């Protein structure tokens, strides 16, 4: 009988040891009160605080006071959340209503053992483990439904660390309806936000910076579905599974967070639009001015407010001849080129407009080193989109 | 006494339950014999196989026969390994001799509980858990020491799934000596490879494609340390901790793996050089021809072999006037511009040469939207580097 007890005791000891090994893998990192620049292996912020010594950022620790809302925690949103968490952002607010599936394992972040969990809860667990200093709030719902929209608006207005509006909204959703919902909310709240997207064929993507009244809103540049009032669902091809790659999604998340850091910490130049064509490693940039006839009432109101604001005095800028782009096109959108490319480069800038609506761009494998010569004006592009 | 035994039994049951919960989080994903394109939530390859249906890749499953060696499993190398693992690469061979530290937590991939583990072992654990179909081999040593170099060479020659040479070598190291070692090995073995790097100020990076004899090798374009025969260690500033960002490193890893996929699966255009300037979202590209007077004997031999090879008949290409770049400069390097930018863009292409040696580029915070006008020829650049 005492032999039995010894066996039990031994078994309990074994199990406790094994369990403590698993437990040790959790929460080894304690919370840290302030960001230190001390160069020791145990300091998770030394390489970020070094940005000050290198002259890149004036006060890196400001990041701890910033709150960012991320809508969509999929291939782009999850990596975006991880990057901001590792950068030591003050607070993240995550919105998604989807579950983790094994079919998501071709992108970064989620792991097979999280299959079946809600994306926001699974993400919170991983992120909190990586950096317990970040406050993480999650909403496991669809922002496009009427009752959730009101709550969504409220969270954006009061979600900061001081119960004020969030500093930035990042759209990482995969459908048009959710983008339009974020657009309406941000126009209504006068909330600055970034849009992001990856094409269905996985080899192009973009980010776009939206300042209500100052830059084009998502409704200002109407894609096919808006212009023609088509139900988005009828556009999706039956049984078609969109392709995706961890590379393209990781790069788009990288662009999004890099520009978020530049905006929040006030360094470098924030891109108004940055596209990525993976087949050619081509990166179109542009500025989109708001459409005075935009369908979104709040957008038109913000435009009026912006027009009345005193502008900072800047040196005269000589505008480049835009050639193939018509300033007074029927959509009322003007494209202002920032990088002054050659005529050949310019023609492909329209592609950005296509990418913005996540329709696939020309995807035929190509070994051509030239930039494709699809000479399209915005009208021609719209005509082409209508003919699809 | 029997009460005691019941208590023991209950405790054992409790511990076993708790332990099984932890164990369930591991290895939930079983090995899969072949890549299916079936669109079900449980298929981890459906979104990758969709690249075929979308017309991007002819035979995606070819990736399962490919072997890639990654040298350096830090901020760029670890994300590179994760992306390739999620893409379903056949085999990964990882080289590193470093340990995971909390100071690495500002980059993607490693987690706090892995602190103290060797980078290659920690990486293997995570990667195998993400995708058990990938074969992962690790070498926890410094490739630059004499005895390890011989083994390194042997692994590159025999490391493929069929015991032949690996398909590609990816350099993700953070120092000049290791890059020169990889360069020597690849020139000797006639092994195609990619170089990658991120600057010390964290806001620029690059990838470079190296085909022995056909493109410039790492010794062809001599940075300051080679040209002046300076010991690299004397260049590193005392007590200076390099800055790093998860964004820049994730983007460089994304460019590296995207171009790896294009090369291995034969789609799109593989960039010979792709730079990234995070402050301006500027992406210089160029071609670097080999230096006929390269110090590396194997490089000169590969150049002779390449000169004798029959070339594919291509249409005549009209070369752009390179203006500020001297074709016959003292380093024997010619820069061939691929994207035909304006004169202003062109001037900053030299920055790519600087970034290649991971010296920081101009890092003063700037809100200027213009491309900086540092008009430098390669000689002027070298002169400037010498004066640092």
Question: What does the model show?
Answer:
- The structure is a homodimer of 388-residue chains.
- Chain A is an alpha/beta fold.
- Chain A has one domain: Rossmann fold (3-Layer(aba) Sandwich).
- Chain A contains 13 helices and nine strands.
- In chain A, the strands form two sheets. Chain A has a seven-stranded mixed sheet with strand order 3-2-1-4-5-6-7, sandwiched between helices.
- The first copy, chain A, is globular, with a radius of gyration of 24 Å.
- The C terminus of chain A is likely disordered.
- At the A-B interface, helix 1, helix 2, helix 3 and helix 9 of A face helix 1, helix 2, helix 3 and helix 9 of B.
CATH architecture of chain A: 3-Layer(aba) Sandwich
CATH class of chain A: Alpha Beta
Oligomer, anyone?
A: homodimer
Number of separate strands of chain A: 9
The rounded Rg of chain A comes to 24 Å
Q: Kindly report the average pLDDT value of chain A.
A: 81
Low-confidence spans of chain A: 317-388
Report the β-strand fraction of chain A as a percent range. Answer: 5-15%
Main attributes?
disordered C terminus, two-stranded antiparallel sheet, homodimer, 388 residues, Rossmann fold, seven-stranded mixed beta sheet, 11% strand, 37% helix, 9 strands, alpha/beta
In short:
The structure is a homodimer of 388-residue chains. Chain A is built from 13 helices and 9 strands.
